[in-house]
Amino acid sequence: MNTALAAVPDLAGDYALSVPTIERFRSQGHAVLRGCAGREDVLAYRDYIAGVVERLKYEARGGVYNTKLEERDTYHKAFVQLENLWTQDEGVKRFTFARRLAKIAAELLGVDGVRLYHDQALFKEAGGGHTPWHQDQYYWPIDNPNTVTMWMALDDCPIEMGSLVFADESHTAGSLASLAISDESERVFRDEVIRRGLPLSINEMNAGDATWHYGWTLHKAPGNITNRERRAMTIIYVADGARVSEFKTDRHPREASRWLPGLQPGDLVDSALNPVLYSK
Length: 280
Ligand SMILES: O=C(O)CCC(=O)C(=O)O
Prior knowledge:
By secondary structure, the chain is an alpha+beta fold. It has one domain (3-279): q2cbj1_9rhob like domain (Jelly Rolls, Sandwich), CATH 2.60.120. 28% of the residues lie in helices and 21% in strands. The chain is built from eight helices and eleven strands. The protein has helices at residues 3-6, 19-28, 39-56, 74-78, 90-96, 99-109, 183-196, 252-259, and strands at 30-33, 80-83, 113-124, 131-134, 147-153, 165-167, 200-202, 210-214, 219-221, 230-239, 276-279. The longest helix has 18 residues, at 39-56.
């Protein structure tokens, strides 16, 4: 085993989730859980994952991260995004497959087991733009609202660095508009938040803290006005037993072929890219 890989921990021990926290997650559609990874562990992962991102980012997304921030569109100003890193690196796989995190996902969702949909590194560069309002599940051809995204801060992340903002209870409505992350989603969902009078929640994060939100929870992030990169790692879990939905948008066939290879509408979400990460 190489020395860098040896430095990344297992994150195997359990996290104590209280019943009120679980209930609040289900009613609000999101929760912040402090210390999902201990400081020493998260800093080891931060350095490790940052190295993997640095190695791979210039080849990603048609080379867009070789261009200056101001030359990019809103989406690519918001973050450097590298998906399913676990398939490319053993150390990242250890993070993505961490039993502790998957068990939290199962407990929040109230299910016996969860599968992986995909992971992603989301690094908001110094001076990076805002992440427009959106609902993650718009992208996913999954028939079940019992999905959750974990977003772990790898750095201490004050609000001005781009900590996530959630619209409370927005998950209860399901799809609010069929919109990808864009200037239009920012406009339409901002109006929807105002029209519905939804309260907003935002948290200062320390490295190792994680937010958790349902696939239909509306969320966004402010731009990073600091001179330091905001590094975050996310894992998307689906309840074991979820099925592939009908393809409802032009994007869905492409999304399915990337994250659910070989599966068709009606099939169980159980491709080789969707291992069970926790089962009771
Ligand atoms: O990191 C960001 O700025 C956005 C993250 C996000 O939208 C997500 O993880 O679902």
